Amino acid sequence: DNSDVSLHPMLLLAVLTAASAAPPLPRGNDDFRLGMFRAQVDSAVAARKLPVISSGSAYLVCGSDDTAVEYEQYSFFQAPHGLTFLWKVTIGYRLATSSDDLDHVLAGLERQLGEPASDTGDAPEPNTLAGTPPPLAARNVIWADPLTAVQLGARWGAEYERKADRMMVTWTDRRLQRLVDARRKQGKGEEKE
């Protein structure tokens, strides 16, 4: 039967394709996992004994046990059936963050996530206009797969070697983000009516 012979090349192609595909990104770290229930996040924050700064039905902002981090923000999506899921985590670093601190955080993320999909670098554009302030230096590093996106972003002013304007790491559940965006769009449409 020739049909058995034609399956072998197809099976081989499927195996080779699966082997060459990059593994999926982790969905979090030791402290959280995207898609967790709200109660699981609350329990994890309580177990870490983190101070709660602000809490609402769609978010939780707390301190951190990492001295370099100013706050951790957990954002939630409430599904129509009432369950609430973690769809985004933003980790905000202290304002005194340096470019060395960024390099340290980047190295840790690369160990966990592998090579980034994109990296803008951090060199400021040369300033060609006399009398204008030096430009901002910015760095934006992104890892992404169909389910998860992780972004490390930082921006420095003229004295960017000494102090950051802000550095953040954001983890996003891309599937839940589409639901959040659709709900926001639907809400704006209802406001116009």
Describe what you observe in this structure.
- This protein has helices spanning 2-20, 38-47, 99-113, 174-192, and strands at 52-56, 59-62, 69-78, 84-93, 118-119, 137-144, 148-156, 164-173.
- The termini are far apart.
- It is globular.
- With 193 residues, it is an alpha+beta fold.
- The chain has an 8-stranded antiparallel beta sheet, with helices on both faces.
- Mean pLDDT is 82; it is low at 1-19.
- The chain is built from 4 helices and 8 strands.
- The longest helix is centred in the first third of the chain and has 19 residues, at 2-20.
Question: In summary, what is this structure?
Answer:
With 193 residues, this protein is of the alpha+beta class. The chain is built from four helices and eight strands; from the N terminus they run ααββββαββββα.
List the keywords.
globular, 8-stranded antiparallel sheet, alpha+beta, 193 residues, 4 helices
Number of helices: 4
Question: How many individual β-strands?
Answer: 8
What is the mean pLDDT?
Answer: 82
Rg, Cα atoms, Å: 21 Å
Strand line-up in the sheet with most strands: 1-2-3-4-8-7-6-5
In terms of DSSP E residues, the strand content is 25-35%
- H/E topology pattern: HHEEEEHEEEEH
Low-confidence stretches: 1-19
Structural category: alpha+beta
* Span of the ends, CA to CA: 64 Å
What would the principal axes of the Cα set say about the shape?
globular
Biggest pleated sheet = 8 strands, antiparallel
Percent helix: 25-40%
